[in-house]
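DM from R.C. (forwarded with permission)

"hey, sorry to bug you on a friday — could you get me a structure for this? deadline for the figure draft is monday and I only need the backbone to look sensible"
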Amino acid sequence: MTAICALFLWSAMGLANASNLASPSHLNSTTATDTSVAAPSETSVVENYVRLASEQYSLALEQAVVFQKTVEEFLQAPSAETLQVAKNQWIEMRKAYSPSEVFRFYGGPIDDEDGPEGLLNAWPLDEAYIDSVVGMPNSGIIHDRTTYPTITKELLLELNEKNGEKNISIGYHALEFLLWGQDLSMESAGNRSFTDYLPGAKNFDRRRDYLKITTDLLVDHLRSLQRDWDLSKPSSYGNQFLSLDTKEAMRNLLLGVYKLSGEELSQERMFVAYDTQAEEDEHSCFSDTTHLDLRYNFQGLKNVLQDKTDFLRVLDRKNPNLAKQIREKLELTEKEILAIPAPFDNAIFDEGARKTIKASVDHLVDLAELVKLAANEFGIQFE
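My reply, with the result:
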């Protein structure tokens, strides 16, 4: 493997604009006709991929640290205003994290045997496992002082997915529920009051502890991922990835895309909710921001295939027609996903929106199959 070329930064500004997911023009790879820069290779694709992962996790951590500060400020002075600031920042940190999900599915730091994926982004979530819900005023860890006298990091880690995969105690969606509360209306997101964190609310002190500890755990887990991909550390996973046989590294890269597009995003996050028409099957149901999850998950796919690695330029030399099909499929998929109206829990009932959701699902499945064909061009087979 050749040495890592000089580290450069990609701007994150394109991620902040949910209405336009394309990378800014000045971030795009050098065009194939530019002879002043060496033509991309499989090695350079892998190097670009590792830098992308490093920077995406750094951005996710950065936004989570900002969220941590907004939570501290909210707990210091609970009000409708400080709660809204924390909610807004929760959305921003989700935007920063969602594109990183393309780095899953091959046993990397996020989802190896000890990986924190299930501690960060597990769903769907049984709200009554955490706090009171309509009809169950004493439910949840927060209200069970007898079984759980003190809420600690160790306790919440132990309880995550204990005795059931919906028994989610920590992560993005636990925080989402703590901020928004149950979504009981088709007209709006959850509407938890800031007064739940003030004296007078039942077990308000434990709810405050729960929010702070869950926030701190999220930052801890993202920091571990940032360190795993930190290229300034010679022993980091990111540098180990660079030392892999190029074919193995390319297989990991493409397997993440294939699995996210053909299974996780298209099926688990879109088709299941489309098919069941059940609000609990949408990804970010408390905040009504599932449409953003879909957009930024897709941006992760696009980053790896087209915007940030030069993969398609390398494929151009092996099979230009296939590369062209992937570019066209990315464009069609992005168009459909951006057209899915918010909130998603309304879209799954609307006849026109359902057609858009189904078209998005079909395009994502098609994209996965095209990526599988592309892998074959590099001598890579998916089981």
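R.C.: lifesaver. The radius of gyration is 21 Å.
me: no worries. DSSP finds 13 helices and no strands in the chain.
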